[in-house]
Design goal:
CATH architecture: Beta Barrel
Number of helices: 1
Structural class: mainly beta
Low-confidence stretches: 4-22
Oligomer: single chain
Largest sheet: 8 strands, antiparallel, barrel
CATH topology: AOC barrel-like
Shape: elongated
Strand order of the largest sheet: 1-2-3-4-5-6-7-8
Number of strands: 8
Mean pLDDT: 87
């Protein structure tokens, strides 16, 4: 009997020490604050003196307030494709994107924004339209304000977007 108990205790110790990984549960609903840091490239098509069409691709990373245990976007990378159309310097734009968490789970977004060409600040809204992995079926929305910084190279753009997102899992 002592050998059986000793074997069970030893197995439990080995399992705990080497076989189990502590994983934080994702809250079913929450509001998170984070900053998205981005870099991208664009193609612009001037349309006379008053109009401009621009298509762009951007990628970057997210740093979430509260770290991984409190923010589902913390340490995620992202990839967005978007476009804007400007008339007399004022634009409306939007696009689609995916954020990929360190564990491989994904969140899918659409977004719409407005701004002025050359001003460097854009305001907009996110809509979470789905996800993959543990985030399948996620929905939500949020607001952001992006600030462009001086580009590192011609034909590129860089900046950051602090935002607030509310989400809900099924």
């Amino acid at each position: 009997m002592k050998k059986t108990v000793l074997a069970l205790v030893s197995s439990l110790v080995i399992l705990v020490a080497f076989g189990m990984e502590a994983k934080a549960q994702i809250p079913k609903e929450g509001t998170t604050l984070q900053t998205w840091y981005y870099s991208g490239t664009f193609k612009a098509l001037p349309m006379g003196q008053e109009r401009l069409q621009m298509n762009y691709e951007m990628m970057g990373l997210v740093i979430g307030e509260g770290g991984t245990s409190k923010n589902i976007f913390h340490n995620a990378s992202f990839h967005f494709l978007g476009a804007l159309h400007a008339v007399k310097g004022e634009f409306e734009g939007g696009g689609f994107g995916v954020a990929v968490r360190p564990d491989g789970d994904k969140v899918f977004f659409t977004y719409k924004d407005i701004g002025k060409v050359g001003v460097g600040t854009t305001k907009g809204i996110w809509t979470i339209v789905g996800g993959a992995g543990k985030l399948a079926g996620i929905q939500g929305e949020g607001e952001y304000t992006c600030t462009d910084v001086r580009p590192a190279a011609e034909g590129t753009f860089q900046g950051y977007c602090p935002d607030k997102v509310h989400y809900k899992l099924p």
